[in-house]
Amino acid sequence: MKLQIGPLQVPVVYVDMTDEDLWGEFWCLPEPQIRVNKELPGYIKALTIFHEVLECLAEIYGLNLSESSIRTLEMSLANLINSNRKEFREWFEMLEKGLEERDDFGEKI
Questions:
Q1: What is the pLDDT of residue 97?
Q2: What torsion, rounded to 10 degrees, do the Cα atoms 69, 74, 78, 79 define?
Q3: pTM of the model
Q4: How many Å apart are CA 37 and CA 58, to the nearest integer?
């Protein structure tokens, strides 16, 4: 999987991180990459990817977020999305439709 995060194409790779006692990590250099422990259950993998995307955004845009702030955003946004699945599907459809009607610079086609 590759994610477009801001100006970066960031691959998500699944590796054995059991010895490192980590769920995941974001590397900005030398090449951006999100690493996720392949031994995690699916739901935890999803949360870990979300957490590392937030880490990446904070790094790219200089947000200076603490680890606890990122963890709070991760859990609260994941809960918001999970508790409002239907509404988020509708919102994604609206967003997708709006993006299809615009060019790369946000101008209406």
A1: 81
A2: -40
A3: 0.81
A4: 21
Residue 36 in contact with residue 24, Cβ under 8 Å? yes
Inside any domain, residue 58? yes
- For residue 16, is it within any domain? yes
CA distance 25 to 35: 5
Residue 37 bridge partners (DSSP): 15
Which helix (H) or strand (E) element contains residue 34? strand 33-37
pLDDT digits (tens, 9 = 90+) for 49-97: 999 999 999 999 999 999 999 999 999 999 999 999 999 999 988 888 8
Q: Flag whether 22 is in a domain.
A: yes
Q: Burial, 96: exposed, middle or buried (Cβ in 10 Å; 0-12, 13-18, 19+)?
A: exposed
Structural domains of the chain, count: 1
